[in-house]
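Marked as duplicate of an earlier ticket. Keeping the data here for the record.
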Amino acid sequence: MIGVFDSGVGGLSVVKQLLKAFNSDIIYLGDTARLPYGTKSKETVLKYSIQNAEFLMRFNVDAIVVACNTASSVAIDVLKKKFNLPVFGVIEPAAKLAAKFEKVCVIGTTSTIQSNAYPKKIAKYNKGCRVTQRACPLFVPLVEEGWIYDDITYEVAKRYLYDLECDALILGCTHYPLLREIIQRVMGVGVSLIDSGEALVKGLKDFKDLFEGSGRLNCYTTDSEEKFAKLGSMFLGKQFNGVKLVDLG
C-alpha cells in the first residue's frame, strides 16, 4: 500500500501515473481545507506535511509519495528522517530529467519557485544548465474552476509565459498537467514539457515491487467530499466515489 498526499486534488495527476504504470494500491489524502500550500510559509508547509504523513502512517503504508511540489520543495528531507520508510518527492525526478537540456524553465507556485528547489536539483546533475523560473499562481484556481481550455486561461498563460525561452519546461505543480495543451500552444512544439508525475514514475523502476498492486484507490479529504470527487474525476479522467472526510486536528 502506497500513501500519497497533496494540498488538494492536484496530486491525483500523480496517482493517475502510478495507477497507469504499476496499478498501485493507494491511500490518497488531499488537504483541501488548508490549500493552497504555495502561499504558505515554509514552517507551515512543513507542519502540514508531517501531519499528512502521520495520517497516512495509520494505514501501515509501505512508502509515501509527496505529490505536492511545494511540500516536496520544503519538507521532503525532514519526512525522510522522521519516518522509517521510503519517501518520494516529485522534484528530484523532474529535475534529473530536465538536466539533460541546455536551457530549462520552471513554472510553479510562489513557494516552489522561491525555494529554488528545482535549480538546486538540476545543478546537481548538470551545473551548466541555464534555469529560468516563473511563478504562475493563477493556474491553480483556473484548473479548479474547470477552465482547462478556456480563452481566459490561454490569455493568462500567454501573460505568464510569452517571454520564456527554453528547450524544456517543467510543470512544477500537480495542477499544471491539465493545462498541458494550452501551455504547449504558448511555448511552441519545440519545447519539451516535463510532467513531474510522469518523471516520478520513470524514476521508480528500481522500486517496482513496492508499487505494484491491484489498483485500489481510497481517497480522503479535509474539506468537501463532493467538490473533491468532482474535481478528482477531472484529474483522474474517470468518475469515482467514496471520498471520506477526515479531520487532521
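See parent ticket for discussion. The chain has a mean pLDDT of 93.
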